[in-house]
Amino acid sequence: MPHDTPLIALLAVGLVLAFVLGSLAHRLRLSPIVGYLVAGILVGPFTPGFVADPDLAMELSEIGVILLMFGVGLHFSVEDLMEVKAIAIPGAIAQITVATALGWALAWFLGWPTLQGIVFGLALSVASTVVLLRAMEDRRLLETRRGRIAVGWLIVEDLVMVVALVLLPALAASLGEGANDGTLALGPVMASLGWTLLKVGAFVALMLLVGKRAIPWLLERVAGFGSRELFTLSVLAIALGVAFGSAKLFGVSFALGAFFAGMLLNGDLSHKAASDSLPLRDAFAVLFFVSVGMLFDPSILVSQPLPVLATFLIITVGKSLAAYLIVRAFGHPNGTALTISASLAQIGEFSFILAGLGVSLAILPQEGRDLVLAGALLSIIANPLIFAALDRLEARRAAAIADGEAPAPAPAPHPGPPLPTGGHAILVGFGRVGGEIAKLLRERAVPLVVIDDDADLVQHARDAGFPAIRGNAASHRVLDEASPAKALLVVLAIPQALEAGEVVARLRALNPGLTILARAHSDAEVKHLLKHGADGAVLAEKELAHSMAEMALSAPPFRHQRA
Asked: Which CATH code, of 2.70.70.10, 3.50.50.60, 3.30.420.130, 3.40.50.720, is assigned to 425-562?
């Protein structure tokens, strides 16, 4: 068997290094993205040792981009944006303009043409979805007013970047050789942009008129087969097929096609598609970050420290200061402005995609991509430190309020029914199993609070009249919000036994007298849950078999035998 297998080598070495360094980053309370990027640097051509095939890495990264954008489309919420449109839309556009202008100013100082400066500035203007949402969720801010503003702001940034990804190829094609000297011939540029917008309009119309009906219809039929692998395959086929077809037939980017494919799914199909495609999407997203890291030349940190520092300051100071001033100008309190400015003080996925596209179209120099990658690495590393400083500031504010030195801010109302204060049950997971458990507990007048990390399931629980908390129950802050020390019962209806075991151990430490029940799918999972402190673990398949056997033995042919 031949051992010259560059694809297997890239997958094996890249994923192993990404896992090790991503785990290390997580232990250091950094985003795992930092570990993935460093893994790419280690297997890239600019560091000694193993060097992965860059061409293969780029093709795999394209799949990562498609699946990332498909996920963005799946979670795109017009309702979230409309709720905070008065601040999010003008605020995000103004902040993008300021950040782009600052990036252009640095590019001008470095002697780059105007278009290259604009592309560079755009790449510095958009925050990482992964980093922002994790920071917000860790601090229990997603359900607050400031959290909704930050998410709406991020949606606007993502939409602006999608438009930029569509228009940049047209600009590059119309400029031709002028891309290198920054000259603009207005006629060809407008003609090229007009033709591009016409093709994009045709693609959007086709997706809205045909795709909006055809894609959900197809997934409903496949879901009816009862085959999980076929449904997962259909989701991936739609994401990749629409992305590839849109690029070949309409000349639009893979990213836009995948985004629309995800956006046209809604309701329960959206949840199932997101759940079933998540493992593969995560794996290719990791490979995307690894391939981005392979492009980074770390020597730029030594050879050009001042441009790197200026890029970092644009991201963490210039962009954040602009966001802070904009939020304050709209009349929002200081705490909201600080939270939003801190959450935007980093860049990530879209920055990499935009910088890579700029280099491939010759409208951004290699040095520009290196500066974007350096700025991303440094800002993602610094972001937890920025939030830690903000946490300390808020702690001092709270202490001043307690001492009577400052007025207390009006408490933000918890969305949904009020949380119980004691003697209640906690239900972790509001899927099909959790929803049925919630109904049964309510029939017996048991006060209940639901925990789930899916925003739509949390909203379903609230609509049904249950107090619900959005977040992962393994998080200290999420669990503490449900008051487990005062609860009487916890039911873990999530199917992930390993995660449930961690939650059980934490609950047992918080409240030794708590009754804890969990869900399992094998005898090994039952042992795992009981070992971590659960009072009981229900083996789903065994209980299903018992129930079906009871029903079968109650049927007419066997009824006389039981009498």
From this structure: 3.40.50.720
